Amino acid sequence: MKRTAFYVSDGTGITAETLGHSMLSQFGGIKFDQVTLPYVISNETTHDVVQKINRAAEQDGATPIVFSTLVNDEHREILARCNGLVLDMFAVFLGPLEQELGVRSSHTVGQSHSIRDHEAYRIRIDAVHFALDNDDGARTRHYDQADVILIGVSRSGKTPTSLYLALQFGLYTANYPLTEDDFDDLRLPDCLVPHKDKLFGLTINPDRLMAIRNERKAGSRYASPRQCEMEVRALEAIYNKHSIPFMDATDMSIEEISTRILAAKGLKRRLQ
Amino acid sequence: MKRTAFYVSDGTGITAETLGHSMLSQFGGIKFDQVTLPYVISNETTHDVVQKINRAAEQDGATPIVFSTLVNDEHREILARCNGLVLDMFAVFLGPLEQELGVRSSHTVGQSHSIRDHEAYRIRIDAVHFALDNDDGARTRHYDQADVILIGVSRSGKTPTSLYLALQFGLYTANYPLTEDDFDDLRLPDCLVPHKDKLFGLTINPDRLMAIRNERKAGSRYASPRQCEMEVRALEAIYNKHSIPFMDATDMSIEEISTRILAAKGLKRRLQ
User: Fold this and answer.
1) Which chain A residue shows the shortest CA-CA distance from B213?
2) What CATH code is carried by the domain that includes residue B234?
3) 20 to 30 A Cα–Cα from B195, which one of A257, B39, B79, B209?
4) What phi, psi does B134 have (nearest 5°)?
């Protein structure tokens, strides 16, 4: 039996998707077709949404699950009449919140992921450009401006983590690859020494590293078991020798690596 | 009066934050101190969370708002006894979902933003590296692999949007800057012509462009009113002449730009 899950929103749909993914991840055995319907901001588009849901109900022979973050009362009433199980975020949480805060909410559509102010936008863009300019050790002279400097071997997740920290939290994140030159004497590269307190190390299971590198350069020395093992062993020796906090990121998502670094380093986000 | 909002989670905290930001954005007049408490996975850490909430309640003289995505029943019961208004995502949505789906949920902690499989991780990382390699017109020979190619003037939001599309949806996104050379005869650059169906244009209000560029190079020709106006006018003429779909991204967040492009181009995400 196929099930369809709908994410219905008057904005980007990101909140509805996040909520829905989170709930559905608790039902691992069931496969869902997922459909995001963003920018639903009129009676007419809401009626279209209802039609789509009803069509899926018919085709699947099963009730679709509908995660909704619609704010407008009229649109929510229209949606409520569809042949799906509607899980309406505002219906359940807005009442208690209004009561506790003692004010009516604004019922403004598309608020959540809209641009709040140009200042927040600027912080975010600057952080992204900082991450790009200071990716993979390309430049080291701006490390005094960095909030955190990620280190690790090639393909251990430094770049995507840097970009995520920049985009999501506005953090100035640099990253620097440790290579064979550094492994001979377990010295910290000179450019990192003055910024030791900003360093955070990533490590990875050598077998996993090998698999990742083989996808890129199959059969190369770079991807060989011996090389990967040697690099990871030396890397962890450097972390230990210089008391650099580090984490094994082998089985972590980028979100998990990022939020754990945030917690471990006690970083203050520049964006809320 | 100060209010504190807590985001409590057994995982990254991203779902709780997303839900909470979305709800609180409906109460624009109230200022919240926001505290994320991720990786709450034991009775002990849950008790610590309760203490933090109770301390905030005392200090603020106002009930804290607590957005929780805790899954474990025991931890949820402990949290429920705090002096905050607990908005518990699983409490309200899990029951109806279990009933509709006819199965008990797994009650597994930290599911939502955990790594699902190595394949999904690979897609994401590859997309990020594609975006980096094909940023700002650096390379054009891989455009056959691109899902979408963003075009626009310098500092119109192409790079952060490309990275967001890669990180969030696994889309292979290239971006190419249109410059003065292209504005003389309103021709589409040769490298873009074979990939016309993949193009999406961004435009921006000239005053806003000027403000952004002035933050970088104050007083330069590049940031002058005349230059910014000329570039935007020529840019839109190119879009119109070559029937390239485009969008004014002046007042849009990166999320909004990205999800609107997804919808406008009918792109199929590589990651759900």
Assistant:
1) A122
2) 3.40.50
3) B209
4) -115, 30
Instruction: Considering only the beta carbons, identify the residue of B34, B69, B256 that sits closest to A272.
Output: B34
CA–CA gap between residue B131 and residue B175 (Å, rounded): 8
Chain B partners within 8 Å of A25 (Cβ) = 108, 111-112
Question: Is residue B108 included in any domain, yes or no?
Answer: no
The answer to whether the pTM exceeds 0.95 is no
Beta-carbon count within 10 A of B49 CB? 23
Q: Are residues A74 and A157 in the same domain?
A: no
Is residue A96 situated within a structural domain? yes
Which residue from A minimizes the CA distance to B119? A212
> φ, ψ for residue B184 (rounded to 5)?
-60, -50
Instruction: Give the C-alpha separation, B29 to B216, whole Å.
Output: 33
Q: Residue A120 — very low, low, confident or very high, per pLDDT cuts 50/70/90?
A: confident
Is B19 within 8 Å of A18 when comparing Cβ atoms? Answer: yes
Which has the closest alpha carbon to B19: A20, A120, A267?
Answer: A20
Rounded Cα gap, residues A175 and A200, in angstroms: 9
Query: What pLDDT digit, counting tens, does each position of B32-70 carry?
Result: 999 999 999 999 999 999 999 999 999 999 999 999 999
Interatomic CA distance for residues B154 and B221, integer angstroms: 13
Residue A21 domain boundaries: 3-101
Q: Is A102 on the interface with B (CB under 8 A)?
A: no
